[in-house]
Amino acid sequence: MMALAYGVTRAGEGGWGHPATLAALGAAALLLAGFVAIQARSADPMLPLSVLAERNRAGSYGAMLLFGAGMMGTYYLLTLGVASAVVNMAQQIGAALGIAAMTAISTAVAGAKVPNAATALASGYSAAFMAGAAMLLLAVVVVGWAVNTREAQKAGDALAQ
Q: Which of 68, 78, 96, 145 is deepest in the core (most CB within 10 A)?
């Protein structure tokens, strides 16, 4: 994974044809092939390859892999976008993304335990929903604070000129 991450990062700096990029991506492919070969012969593999023989299951695992990769890419791009468009302090970006992650986790946990909101409130799971709502409200406050900070800085810069 480290070789793959380095190769993709290096491609942004030196291009896809740069020798360091090609070497890192080649190393990532060789290491992945080696890992699969070792897991295929292992008595107790992390993921038995026979599981992937079923077409539907293999497709769903592939879809979940792409979904996870998309979510990680989204957090990376959100960080860049928020840093350039709304706020400029690392603490503000970290707070906003941390609250977003906590909200996603709490709602996923609450949703996994309860089929619908009416059952949740009747069963006593309202605390999980209230925690999710409180974190969402906190995220709105942090974003509002960040936007006001950015606008104040723009106004100060305009007055300084």
A: 96
Instruction: Confirm if 24 and 6 have CB atoms less than 8 A apart.
Output: yes
Query: Which domain, by its residues, includes 83?
Result: 59-161
- φ/ψ of residue 70, rounded to 5: -65, -40
Q: Which residue has the tokens 């604070």?
A: 145
Sign (positive/negative) of CA torsion 46, 49, 50, 53? positive
DSSP 8-state assignment for residue 16: T
Who's near 106: CB < 8 A, 6+ residues apart? 128, 131, 132, 135
Task: Tell me the CA distances in angstroms from 160 to 87, 114, 151, 156, one per residue in order.
Answer: 20, 55, 14, 6
Confirm whether 146 is domain-assigned. Answer: yes
Taking only the tens place, the pLDDT of each residue in 71-87 is 777 777 776 666 666 55
Q: What whole-number distance in Å separates Cα of residue 143 and Cα of residue 149?
A: 10
pLDDT over 70 at 50, yes or no = yes
Q: Locate tokens 């491609």: which residue?
A: 11
The position carrying tokens 């996994």 is 112
CA 112 – CA 101 distance, rounded (Å): 16
